Amino acid sequence: MKDLGSLHYFLGVEVQHNSQGLFLSQTKYALDLLQQALQYLTITRPDLSFSVNSICQYMHAPTEDHFRALKRILRYVKGTVHHGLQLHRTSSHELLAYSDADWAGCPDTQRFTSGYLIFFGPNLVSWCSKKQSIVSHSSAEAECRSLAITTAEVAWIVQLLRDLHPPLPSFPKILCDNRSALFMAVNPITRFSI
């Protein structure tokens, strides 16, 4: 049998050796519960998506700053506990998407966060805020990659709507705030793989 050294973590319980004996805590378990609860809340709370995405990236090794940010998010949730999504009856079947990205938004990895909102008529039906695994070389490239992610989601929704048989407009609209990305989207020549 091999000696693995002092016990530090077992079955969700953290063990710290000190001069008085052992200190047992479940900090990581509590943080995981908070993270899961906040992620679950984003199902009906798109306003939380970016902040929850940002804080969840640091839960493997949180610092005091991350705890303060988490408490701020929880205070916001407490103050807006009655917020949610209102879905309206409508005769409009227009599909409208907004795409955006922050170039090198993560100071540690220089990766970008992409996001989109997709509306069917006046109703928000899909949204996402996600840090990407690729480092983009320019803001236009980050925006173009975000546009590609948004387009894939719009294509999936269009196919779903075709299966459900409501009348669809001929083309969904996808809006982006970067002229270079729009130029790359309509130009058939690409200089990077998406």
Explain what you see:
With 194 residues, the chain is an alpha+beta fold. The protein folds into two domains: 9-79, no CATH class; 95-186, Ubiquitin-like (UB roll). Helices cover 38% and strands 22% of the residues. It is built from five helices and seven strands. It has helices at 27-41, 49-56, 64-79, 139-164, 179-186; strands at 9-10, 13-18, 21-25, 95-102, 113-120, 123-131, 173-176. The strands form two sheets. The chain has a four-stranded mixed sheet. A three-stranded antiparallel sheet has the order 1-2-3. The longest helix has 26 residues, at 139-164. The N and C termini lie far apart (50 Å). 16% of the residues are buried. The model has no long low-confidence stretch (mean pLDDT 83).
Radius of gyration from the CA trace?
A: 22 Å
Helix fraction bin: 25-40%
Bin the strand percentage: 15-25%
Structure annotation, total helices = 5
Cross-sheet strand order for the largest sheet = 6-5-4-7
Distance between the termini: 50 Å
What is the domain total for the residues? 2
Q: What is the mean predicted local confidence, pLDDT?
A: 83
What CATH calls the topology of the largest domain is Ubiquitin-like (UB roll)
Sequence stretches where pLDDT stays below 50 over 5 or more residues = none
Short description:
It is elongated, with a radius of gyration of 22 Å.
